[in-house]
Structure formats: structure tokens, C-alpha cells
Amino acid sequence: MDVPPLERGSAVDDLLCFALYAASRAVTAAYRPLLQDLGLTYPQYLVMLALWDRGEPMPVKDLGDALQLDYGTLTPLLKRLEVAGLVTRRRRMDDERSVLVGLTDEGRALQGSTGGITTSIGEVMGLPEVEVDRLRESLRHLAANVAAHNAR
């Protein structure tokens, strides 16, 4: 059974939160085929990006803060990446409550296979770079405002 798309101006379509949700789903879906060959999901890719950027092991708490993921969401991602041989998890010697996440040699090597992803996603989005930059800043501002409101 085919379901028609929502019409512009409908109650749902007029919601900013729906536009954000639909855009997020569309962009994440665009990543799927690019990451499938690497054996990564989009959230796993974000973890790997953070670790590649850092270049050294980091506490799970810092990784969760950087990705805005709670411990309960992040831990299963890390377990799957560890089973895949891409990351290591080990308790800190000076504080056994803290777990450090680092890259394996295989995890570091995987970064070389990701070079075309950003370009491909940019092409899929079809937006000029200046518009992408403006949109990113607007979304960061929106997220910060909502987080500040929710922290009250």
C-alpha cells in the first residue's frame, strides 16, 4: 500500500522539529551505502571520527560528551567496534572507574578508506559550501539554546 507524502502546509510539515527529523533521517540514509562497505553504522562512524580526530585513547565519558551520547547508548557501540577489531577498551591504571577507548592498528588504517565520504555527502546535499556552513552554525545555535533551556 502506497502512502502519499505529507502535503506542504500540513500540521506536521509545518513543524520545525519534523523538518529537522526528516533531514536527519535523509542525511543518515545517504551515509548508509558509503559506510556499509566499511562495516560501520552511522553512529559507529561518528565514534571512529572522534577517535581519529583525537589520535590517542580517550575516556568513554569524554567520547560521550563529544558525541552527545549517554553511556548506555555508547557502550554497545564500543562493544561492537571492539569485537570488529577497530577499538580497544581498557580501564585506566590511575582510576579504575574510567575506561579509555583507543584505536587498534586496523581502526587507524580504516581512516584511509573514508576519504571520499565527506565529498559524496556534500554532493548528495546539493548545497553551496557557504549555505552548509550557515546551516551548521544555525543548528549548533539551536541545539545550544534548547540544551540551555532544558538545563533550567
From TrEMBL:
Keyword Repressor among record annotations: no
Keywords, ordered alphabetically: Cytoplasm, DNA-binding, Transcription, Transcription regulation
Main localization category: cytoplasm
Tagged with keyword Transmembrane helix: no
Native source species: Saccharothrix longispora
Domain HTH marR-type: 13-144
Record-linked PANTHER family: ORGANIC HYDROPEROXIDE RESISTANCE TRANSCRIPTIONAL REGULATOR, TRANSCRIPTIONAL REGULATOR, MARR FAMILY
The name this protein goes by in its record: DNA-binding MarR family transcriptional regulator
GO molecular function terms listed in the Swiss-Prot or TrEMBL record: DNA binding
Pfam families linked to this entry: Staph_reg_Sar_Rot
Lineage: Bacteria, Bacillati, Actinomycetota, Actinomycetes, Pseudonocardiales
InterPro entries per record: ArsR-like_HTH (IPR011991), HTH_MarR-typ (IPR000835), MarR/SlyA-like (IPR039422), Transc_reg_Sar_Rot_HTH (IPR055166), WH-like_DNA-bd_sf (IPR036388), WH_DNA-bd_sf (IPR036390)
Subcellular localization, as worded in the UniProt entry: Cytoplasm
